[in-house]
Description:
Layout: H1 42-50, H2 56-83, E1 94-96, E2 104-106, H3 110-118, H4 120-140, H5 145-161, H6 163-180, H7 185-197, H8 204-209, H9 219-243, H10 251-258, H11 261-264, H12 272-279, H13 290-311, H14 324-329, H15 332-363, H16 388-403, H17 409-427, H18 431-454, H19 459-465, H20 468-494, H21 497-510, H22 514-541, H23 557-560, H24 562-565, H25 571-576
Amino acid sequence: MSPLTDGNSLPGSQRDPQPTLSRCKATPSGCNCCVQGASRVLPVCVTMGIKAALPKYEIYFYNTVLCLAMFWAAGWIFDVSSSSANRKTFKTSVKPGWYYFGRKMDTADLEWMMWFSTFRAHILFALSGHVLFAKICSMLAPQYRSLVYMVYGLLAVWTSMGWTYVTLILSHCILLYSISLVKIRWLCFVAGLCTLATFKCEPFVSWQAGFVEGDFELRHVLFYGGCGFTIMRCMSFALENCERKDGNYNILELLKYNFYLPFFYFGPIMTFDKFYVQANKSDLTRKEWEMWNISLQGLIHLGVVIVVDVLFHFMYILTIPTDLKLLKHASDWALVGLAYFNLVYDWVKAAVMFGVINTVSRLDHLDPPKPPKCITMLYVFAETHFDRGINEWLCKYVYNYLGGNHENVVEELVATLCTFGITILWLGPCEVVLIWAFLNCFGLNFELWTAKFFSMEPFASFEMAMSEAMSRRIRAIFNTLNFWTIVLYNILALNSLDFAKLVAKRLLLKGFPITTIIVMFVTYCLIQVIKERERGQALIDDPDPLPPAPPTNAASPTAASPTAAQPVADPSKEKAE
């Protein structure tokens, strides 16, 4: 469940948008020293962090331990779910499920139920109409397709929320467009953030909510989703207009950008510069197998929705954390499994919901933000996020703009503080959000401080002296501790502060030393499995150079003297290569 005041579930748009804040784009993830982005540390990062290989039998052992641990934790959660299905505290969220299973179903996530059960037909109808009209326009008048997207989106918003709501949205667009004409970056930021704050505090919220007609169940969700994303899109437009050297963008371009229906209510956010180029390109030819890939992605999303609904009949991972009395009597494995599976589920939800929207936008020849990176593949704060669109927005306009090359500690601290300040405003200031932002901001900066400290002598020499495999194992030990820090910091936002405290006490205090050591060892195996996957991807993206071909003419003087043909290589440079 997303963090929100009063504990309610946010629309898919306002899910935890923790920024990735990547500092090193030259290498894949998997190494804390990447956060420095310093050229002198990069060889150590590449050699000993990503491409370091372990024996095959060791990798097989790690995979076996990890699979057994996952099934063991799932078994404990299944036992707790089966024995507690009829508890009084479960009545509001555990309801009769599919007839075929004869079991009750966890319906605690209102956001998931809204998308794939309650309002499934309405959402499908709106998106199907968009796809139909977009296809017709692409065939008859492709040069006007962005205008058709805007008209259809405007009519859909008008139909669902009323003309007064459309008037409210247009007024915000006109206001921020007028300010963007001044081309003062800080003024656009201040105006956008002040406008966003009006949807987070009284009496402005109640006054603006009165512009929505009707009293249907989706009213609250659509109101905040549409308004919040409108402000972020208008800020992106204004900031891009400030960067434009020749003239200004037309206000019609802003309306096309904002009223693109698939992104309007639930996101994700595409920055204006990307949307403008892609929505106005004239070449609509597709790559080979592109339609096949789009269809396959749609089928995969459908399959994931079915699998998640089936699992909700057997594991009540969303309802159990709300019952603290039950949790106090649950086993250590059940608690640890609940913390981990809650984060995995939130990633699955984000990937599916954004994936459905992204599939529609890909049919419109757009390249939307990718799904978030799975929590199972994360062990550094610098890559933790649940909404890649918000993440890219924050990185482009705040974090990278203020942080420079991300080597200076003070600049990095200022950049992260400003980034998480905007994130707090986006989510809505409350106790849980403030604690979550502080802990993640500290974790992000602590990674930089630690990386700088261990890049100094004598630590850098020690790592260069040891074998690549041993360096990878030592790094994995530190990454194991970091992984559970990320888990604990984020479950307090997804569940509750009390649940996070209970998991931390059981894992670190009451369960010490047996539970702590076992869980950390299993996590260490997970980290090594992640590193092995990243190693395989790194070898694909950046294959090792082939050895030089043998000389063809052995009698030639050049071939007879290999030292003359091959200059002597520096050993340290050779190892870095």
